Amino acid sequence: MKTLLAVDGSDNSYEAVRALQYFARSQQLTLLHALNVPKPAYPMMMPEAAEEIYKTLEQSMREDGERLLDRVQALLPMHAGSTTKQLRIGSPTGVILSMAEEQKTDLIVMGARGLGPIKERLLGSVSHRILTLAPCATLIVNGPVKAMKQILLPLQDHFDAESAIRFLQLKPFHDTMKIALLTVLPETAPPWPNDAAAAAASAEMLENQADYINDVAERLRAIGYEAHGVAVLGTPATMILQQATLLRSDLILMGTRGRQGITRFVLGSVSHAVLHKTPCPVLTFHSGDR
């Protein structure tokens, strides 16, 4: 598996480095730091002077970036795999996406600095833009990393299930993981109180989903994972967060799909909503659309 570790020197960035100890040896591990060098903001300045200031600042940032990459490399786990260091000039989002495309990356790993839920939904942080636009799986680390043993895997439908199985077949983790599969059915109010028919229909749907999720769990057990499934009623983001807390999950693994561009940043998807409040890192994989 080819892994891209994007670092910026923040606390969560270093936690992302620590998270690599729980992932399998990489076929190729790239350490990337983006140099977002600001242009001089004085319109009356002579072009020569502005260029000199820019070059001096770029050189200083480049030296800082090289020291950062050296520190990160020293902190990598012993089994990290073959490593290269890259400094690229440009916006962090553009640099990360370009590198991921160029190297045909399987997994992007990065820390989330966080801007607060309102600002992030309207403008999009680097981590949210990568989550939305990345061509591969993405691990967003939003706080201290615990030992990764328990994974919560929410599944919306068979598209999610098939995509999750394809990703897990890559054997991305260093140790055997316990996976709790979760499917959430929307909780709908009956057309009138004590509607026995509606209640029975809801119970049947829940039972069918439970059977399906157990079948997926059986497929995961067949490829070496410890897995069990549960089906619940409720709001997807709320129930995912509730189950993550209840099960003391170390990682939420979930598919992302749907809205693109500004509508996704403004309205938010389930994966974005979970990322804002999750008690643990979130690893997303691309799930096929209907």
Briefly summarize what is shown.
The protein has 290 residues and is an alpha/beta fold. It contains ten helices and ten strands.
Structural notes for this entry:
The chain is α/β, with parallel strands linked by helices. It has two domains: 1-145, HUPs (Rossmann fold), CATH 3.40.50.620; 146-290, HUPs (Rossmann fold), CATH 3.40.50. The protein has helices at 11-19, 47-75, 92-103, 117-123, 126-133, 158-168, 196-222, 236-246, 261-267, 270-277, and strands at 2-6, 26-35, 81-89, 107-111, 137-141, 150-154, 178-185, 226-233, 251-256, 282-286. Strands 3-2-1-4-5-10-9-6-7-8 form a ten-stranded mixed β-sheet, with helices on both faces. Mean pLDDT is 84; it is low at 117-124 and 258-268.
Q: Layout of helices and strands, plus pairs?
A:
Elements: E1 2-6, H1 11-19, E2 26-35, H2 47-75, E3 81-89, H3 92-103, E4 107-111, H4 117-123, H5 126-133, E5 137-141, E6 150-154, H6 158-168, E7 178-185, H7 196-222, E8 226-233, H8 236-246, E9 251-256, H9 261-267, H10 270-277, E10 282-286
Helix pairs in contact: 3-5, 4-9, 8-10
Provide the descriptors you would attach to this structure in a database record.
290 residues, alpha/beta, Rossmann fold, 10-stranded mixed beta sheet
